Amino acid sequence: MARVVRFERTGGPEVLKLVEADVRSPGPGELKMNVRAIGLNRAEAMFRAGQYLEAPKLPGGLGYEAAGVVSAVGLGVTGFVVGDVVSVIPGFSMNDYACYGSEAVVPVISAMKHPASLSFEQAAATWMQYMTAFGALVAIGGVKRNDAVVITAASSSVGLAAIQIVNAAHGISIATTRKPDKKQALLDHGAQHVIATETQDLVGEVARITNNHGARLVFDPVGGPMIEKLAKATAYEGTFFQYGALSSEPTPFPLFTALSKGLTIRGYTLMELKVGSDRFEAGKKYVLDGLASGTLKPVIAKTFPLSQIVEAHRYLEANQQVGKVVVTID
């Protein structure tokens, strides 16, 4: 019997229950793994709360990311054998697959033999953050030398990944955080500039940093009323990526700013990098190359044992972390 996380109703972290259950054998195109570490994501908290892009089918499971050891492979699967060390790249519905547990079945196309230099915890903290940032900033945005990029919620794992990616392209990383208490941590993690939006003028600071040109790219998972200031901080013909909806407030469309600047404001999720597509494969190579060169380094904020999954989700939603929250199998 495996230990897996289930929830029978949507709501806060307290709805998560750790239960014993049989995990099915892998079918064609699938593999089964003994999970060693799980990476937590705000998307999973939103799914659990019934606030995600798709509604959970109850009773449901959770989890886009995990790292572990292959314990079985499905019919016709090639390229993986029992004993392989693998991590999971998000690209599936959590109504079909779930990684929160001591065992998990995942689609082979989302499995990756990660570098031996990565620990299980680091591997579980890699793919969501880097592939998400790669898709927007590199594959679509084409970030390049001297591009100014505003990165909001920058202390998140995706935010830190975006900082590293912009720096690797020799762009100008402008991180934002609500309060000043995370400014030094963001600078220590590579942000070239940090703006505390509750105490500083976002538009004025971006204008100062960019010599009044504005940011060519904006990368925002929050939404809400701040989008109007972010649009004003965007350069003429700049691109604004809205990749999340963490704010509980309505998100207004900055019509006149968009018209006057010719802005591209587009919704974006990692799922645009369709599993197996050229962009998806390019993202995998980009991440592996970055890990090998040291330009990409996963940052783990805190680890919890699986038995403390409720506490781990509470910590995730408290916005205290700088980096990834990881759960290990105790």
List keywords for this structure.
330 residues; alpha/beta; seven-stranded mixed sheet; six-stranded parallel sheet; 10 helices; 15 strands; globular
Please characterize this protein's 3D structure.
This protein is of the alpha/beta class and 330 residues long. Helices cover 28% and strands 25% of the residues. The chain has 10 helices and 15 strands. The protein has helices at residues 42-49, 120-124, 127-140, 157-168, 183-188, 202-209, 226-233, 255-261, 278-293, 309-317; strands at residues 2-6, 17-21, 30-39, 65-73, 85-88, 103-107, 111-112, 148-151, 172-177, 193-196, 215-220, 234-242, 264-267, 300-305, 324-328. Strands 3, 4, 5, 6, 7, 14 and 15 form a 7-stranded mixed β-sheet that branches. Helix 8 (255-261) links the parallel strand 12 (234-242) and strand 13. Helix 3 packs across helix 4 and helix 3 packs across helix 9. The longest helix is centred in the C-terminal third of the chain and has 16 residues, at 278-293. The radius of gyration is 20 Å and the shape is globular. The mean pLDDT is 95.
Outline of the structure:
With 330 residues, this protein is of the alpha/beta class. 28% of the residues lie in helices and 25% in strands. Strand 11, helix 7 and strand 12 form a beta-alpha-beta unit.
Task: Write down the overall mean pLDDT.
Answer: 95
Percent of residues in beta strands?
A: 25-35%
How large is the count of helical segments?
10
Number of strands: 15
Largest sheet: 7 strands, mixed
Order of helices and strands: EEEHEEEEHHEHEHEHEHEHEHEHE
- Helix share bin: 25-40%
**Low-pLDDT runs:** none
The coarse silhouette is globular
Radius of gyration: 20 Å
Q: What is the terminal-to-terminal distance?
A: 15 Å
- Which secondary-structure class do the elements indicate? alpha/beta
